[in-house]
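Here we describe the complex-level prediction in full. Unlike the single-chain runs in Section 2.1, the two entities below were treated as one system.
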Amino acid sequence: MSAARKRISPAYQNYLNTKSTVFKGLCIAFTAAILAVLAFVTFYLLQKGFTHISLSFFTELPIPPGMENAPGGMKNALIGTIILIALAGVVGIPLGMLAGIYLSEYSSNSWLGAPTRFISDVLTGVPSIVVGILGYELLVAPISANISYWMQFTWLTRKLLHLFPNGTFNGYAGAAALAFIMIPIVARTTEEMLRLVPHSYREASIALGATKARTILKVVVPAATGSLVTGIMLSIARIAGETAPLLFTALGSRLLTLDPANPFPSLTVQVFTYATGPFKEEQELAWAGMLILIGLVFILNLVVRLTIHSMQRNKLARA
Amino acid sequence: MTRPQLQPKINMSTDAQPTHAISDSAASGGDPRQFNRLQAIARGQAVPIETHSAIAGEQPVISVDHFNLFYGSKQALFDVSMDIPRGKVTSLIGPSGCGKSTLIRSVNRLNDLIDNVNITGSMRYRDVDIYGKLVNVIELRKSLGMVFQKPNPFPMSIFENVVYPLRIEGIRNRSKLEEICEKSLRGAALWDEVKDRLDENALGMSGGQQQRLCIARAVAADPEVLLMDEPCSALDPIATSKIEDLIQELKGEYSILIVTHNMQQASRASDYTAFMYLGRLIEYGPTIDVFTNPHLKETEDYITGRFG
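The structure predicted for the assembly as a whole is:
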């Protein structure tokens, strides 16, 4: 089939080789540039924030500027973030996982599957400020003193008003906004991880006379446990760093509150407040807060990656 | 098993009565070897099934009657009719794509898991119409155990794998679970190898052990019929022979239907053999007869390796 092979002149070959090398060089150069920028940002942050991290950051409450021991610490914000994540998780994780199970196991026979998947994907990209304003309109404003006239009309809404004696901004609304962000992420990652479970497990279980529900709960989900947990941890890392949803729902506070029916502190909003405020000591504390925040996200991602790595090594060892 | 003779004796009148005659040619009562089935299939004609009379003497556990299966608009099984005898090993042989796996998966309604599958005709298991509207499929599947081509133990411990069907029944009593687990593992000739590592992950076993575990798991559900879809094709020869011995041991208590693309295995391990081609059942009879004295030229050609 081959006629005489076309010969490439050495000059042309050199030209091709040079093009290859230049392209490779460009890739390396741009990667180095990005890494340099990242390194610069990281070290700047470290330098700015590290000096202001001390034990008091974790143990003291915010103290008004001008008083002794100002500016204090961010104990209330740290506790607040943890409580908010816990509340959001209690609602968001089960709902997200059930949605993910539906998408993966039940949706092939239903017209509901493709729209749900599409809407989930869109919702993962919704700007979080939109979620914040939505949370205000739906969860905060209706119970405010000006509008609560309409809430008096039913027993259920009257009871809700009793829950929020201090008016409007509350931690529950903040947790709800965070859950709103969390659910599509958990649903999509759950669906993807369940799809990775080999179909042969489902067939074997069905062939033994198990119902579909038992197959899903006892065989498929346990087979994917590690991957599901990493998906959940990624969603937690995401919401731990969210500021905008909390600005109009939980508002923020300088007090240590454990009751989410009040305006609720969180690390992200506290950092925002200090960084945009006029007091120098508070701004320095904001740098420290940013460092802690990034450290938290970094550690969560690191744990996720290490878990995936060790899971893969276990699978290879067994095979 | 000896090699099939190349020039079989032609013995027409007594043995050649098809019990499910659906021909539209002069084949019934006439000489079945005259009718070229491959040409008829290519023309789209119905093809009569050549069933040996020895089948009629057996008690059937599963009766397939004029069974057709469609994947969407594509037909995969054409008018299959056969009676699978109780307490014996029946093998389905045929070239790739002839519908053997589809047929065996239809017995325990595993094809329900695939969208767009339509069937006509009927299958009966012990007077229960498998595809009846009111039938409880979950209960039915407990009586029709299945072993798959690729061993698929669950990613749990060996003990949990074997007692999974018992947990479906709601049995929680630990001593009862252990008793049935030991019985099933002994029945699958696996007990001695795993008795001191029952809590280890099942995926750590070799392929042959995993397949025997799957057989133990299927047996623990106390089925009446065992459906085996090429159980040895993913295994080495030693594991294969162990499983073939196992099949012989299980034979009387269970009725076994085994799909195999390995003709030597069919001739070694089964009592009855059904030859399928292009979604149609061509010939069905005792293994000895089908392999040494096939009634049809098509069967003889396949067995001697002329096609497939």
